[in-house]
Structures are given as C-alpha cells and as structure tokens.
Write the structure tokens for this entry.
Amino acid sequence: MGNKRLHINYRLFCLGLIYLYFGSMSILAIEPVVERVYVQIDKQVYLAGENLWTKLYVTGLKGEISLFSKIAYLELIGDTIPYVQQKIDVKSGIADSRIHLPVDIPTGNYRLVAYTRAMRNEGETVFFSRPVTVYNPFTVERIGYSQEEQNLSSADNAIVPLTSSVITSNKSQYSTREQGQISIHGLDKDAYSLSLSIAKKENLPGMPPLTIDDWKANIPKEQYLKVASFLPEYEGHIVLGSIVSEDQSKETFRRNIITPLIAFPGQGIRLFSGQIKENGEVLFFTKRIDGTHDVVSSALLFSEKLFRVDIQSPFATHSRTESLSAPVVSATLQDELLERSIGVQAMQGFYGDTIWQTSYEAPHVVNTPERVYKLDEYTRFTTMQEVITEFVLGLRFRKINDKRFLSSLTEERDGFTSANTLVLLDGVPLLDHESIYNYDPLLVESIELYRGKYLFGGQMFDGIAYFKTYDQDYKGVKLDPSSQLFTYRGTEPKSHFFMPDYSDPAKRASRLPDMRHTLLWIPDIQTQGQPIINIPFFTSDLKGEFIVTIEGLSKTGQTIRSSATFRVE
C-alpha cells in the first residue's frame, strides 16, 4: 500500500479475529467463558409506576469479580412473558440500572432474571433469578381474605441479621425532611464495591428477600457444554441480525458476497460492520450505543441477488417454570396501597423530569474529517452536481453503465478513486449514489471529506463523503432496497437517583409533597480501602420505620452485608 493510510478500528478488528476463533468451535475444543451474576435491588415490594433500582455484579464461579463481559441482560418476567428487558453496560464487573415498572403491569410475583451472553452457553439454569412483588392498585382484585392471610402481610419482611461490617445512623429517630448520616464501619481493605439502600419497611405482603449471602452459598455449578455458541461481549454490545433474501428465505451464500452494515444516524460517523456465520446470522460488534436510536441496516452486495439484514432480539428465550404464588391482599391493606399509590403519582406529578435524570456516554465515532465545506459560505446551487463541481474539490460524480457514482480524490492527490466512496447522509449509508446525486442540496448544511482507505467488514472504501443536513434527520432520504430503517434500544443510559436537599430552611418549608418510599439508593460506593464511610441523606414526608441495607463483594468474592433501622416521626 506504500505510504497510504489504512483506517481500521483495531479493537473491533480484534473482535473479528476472536469471532473467527470462536466461530470454529464446532471443530476446535475451546473452553468457554464461565460467569455468574448477582443483582441487588433497593427493596422487595413495588407498585406499578415506581422505579426499581438494581445493582449487578458479574463474577466467576467463586463470586470473584469478573472483568470479561461488558454487557449484562436484565429482565422482569411473569411466567415466560418479559415485562421489562434491559441491556446494561458493565464496567469492571459492576453495573446498575433503573427499571421503571409499567403502569399497566398486573399485581403479581415476578422473577428478576439476569445473565451475560457468555452464560447462555450453559443454559438458563445458571441465570440469576430473584422474586419481586409488584402491586397495581388499579387492578387489585383479591381483597378481603382470612385473618391467617392478613397476618402474612409483614412476616416475610424481617430484617436479615448482620453478617459483616456494621451500619449505624447518627440518630435512632428523625423528623420529616431532616438530614441524617449513615456510617459504615469495619470495612475490609479488599472491599471492592458496595451498594446502599434506605427504604420504608414493607407492610404489604412480599416474597422472602434474597441476600448476597444466599446467592454466594448457592452459586450454580458449571454446566458442561461441548460447543460454545454465544460469543462473549468483552468489548461492547453485540447487535444480532440475520441475512434474508428478497423472497424472505434464508439461503446458502458465500461470505464474500455480502458486507452487512448498521449505522446510527446523527452526529458523527457511527458505522459498524458485521461478521456473517454459516447459518446467515450476523454479529455487529458495537460500543457506546446507550439510549434509543434510529438505526439503518444495509447489505452491501457483490451480486445481482437482493438481500437485507433483519435485526433480532439479543435476549434469551425462557422456558416455563413453576409459577410464583400470587400476593395476598387483605382489606386491612387498602390504606397502605392508597398512601403508596398517591405517593407515586405525587412524585411524578410535582417533580416531573427531575426524577428521570439520565446521562449518556459520548458516542463512538470514526476519526475526524480532513476537510469540511460549509455550504452557506458559498453561493447556493439547486443541484448536487453543481455543488460538487463548483466547490468540493475532493469529490466528483462519475457515470458508469448509465449510473452515477461519487469518487474521492486519492491521498496522493494524483487522481480520483474508482467510484467506491462511502456516502453517508447524516450517518445513513447511501449505497446507491444516485440518491445523493438527486438530493436537494438546499437541505444540506455541510459536506465532510474523510480521505484514505476505510475498512468495514470485508469491504474497503476509498474515502468517506459525509453530507450533514441542518436538522440531522436525513430528511427525504430514499433508502436502497437492501437497507431498512428501524428503532433500536441500546444499552441503558446512566440513571441518577433523585433526593431533595433540605439543608436550606426555605426548601424544607416547601409545600411540594415529598413521598419518597426509597430515601436513598447508591449503587456503587468505592471504598478505596477506607475502614469507615459516612453517607448523608434526607428523610421524606413519610413516617414509620426505615431499613438501611448495604451489600457488596471483595475482589476475591467475600460477601459484605449489613442492615440497620431507624424511625421517622
């Protein structure tokens, strides 16, 4: 290649090599990655419309932190039906998320199931599962049961005895909207990460809680498999697809015929190529795609046959298990349900978007442009042919067999390439260059040129031409028949727990109701070897007994758990 630069994402290239390695497992005996997951939650009983806060640990068979998988899957399942499904970024074996329980979810006991892609090689018997109780006050029908059933209302929610470390609060009783402090003593220097929750003691019946000690004592053993079918996600989320022909049949094809691509339109070039397996399955190795996006899938063709890429669900299919018994609701609990329901509605009504705070990672983009043409700085023409000819020195349209192609100036600037420029409109690949030739240039704000060779999958492109519209919404674009646009929910953005600050007397005197049932949730306390950690919090307008719970692991898998109580009057 001489002095020409080859633009490759080397980390994704390495993923491709690993795919080839794992893809040969039917021939080679390769030991699969073995992982386990534990999930802590902020409490045991919820109402429809509330937030369920989670903390995940990805570990090995002995509970030691695993640094391999970077994605975990979390599902709230009733029988075999998933009501909530999440993909969660894992960093250094730790992850957390917020599940907003659907307002129409029926009253019942559910399973919170978690796993990594690597765990699917062993089957769902090794998946993490814990029971969660949800009440929907608008659908509760089982009212008015026997005294024996009524006595179950709080019996299963006793505090678990201390097993390690000690929690203390600076007071045993607080008033409403008062600042308090939780102190965690006796931490081992090897403590890796702790999570802390402060929630009101339940009066509603719920399933017995699962503790980190329970989980550690019953970690599923390794399930032997001859072949590992699921490639671990050690870099980022693997988007799963399949190659389908125009007649919707999955047919045999050579891998060098098709180059599958997915693009995330918007700011910058976010384009990922796919690896095709023998059965037509496609793996797209992505990273930093949190949030919900428009996505375009394309099948770049080297034959007359028309193919497309259909995106598949990455979640496991769950078999039917023994149903959890329905929660018992007695007439004496109606007041509790009413107060809790009013609290949920009040928090959402008065605090609006404040309780839904999220943040997003900077997206993964390909390089920076060598040249940017801002078209408003030039005379505006009404055809793209005129724009390219008059202003953009690094591009030109060529006509081959009655079709127009966009060519890029070579790196040596001694001529133009052979018409295989990658053309993007707001990040959407336009495989048919006639689309950009006929596009209205008055909608385009700028044209960015990326000179050199770019490798995506098995296809080499001579340069990239990025056309950016004013609204970056690819207005009026006509996709190639082998491309399709859809919405894809990536990994969960970072959610931030909302807690009002009442250190200002004026805020404490505010008439806005504070009906927080969970006072505090901190999913990742980094101990950094400190023997004592102090954590401030504020009480809400709710009175009664509150339970403080910490759980955690050391790097070697030693469990940390402690709980304490205080009252608010």
Observations:
- The domain at 371-478 is CATH 2.170.130.10 (Ferric Hydroxamate Uptake Protein; Chain A, domain 1).
- DSSP finds seven helices and 33 strands in the chain.
- The radius of gyration is 28 Å.
- The CA atoms of residues 360 and 493 lie 5 Å apart.
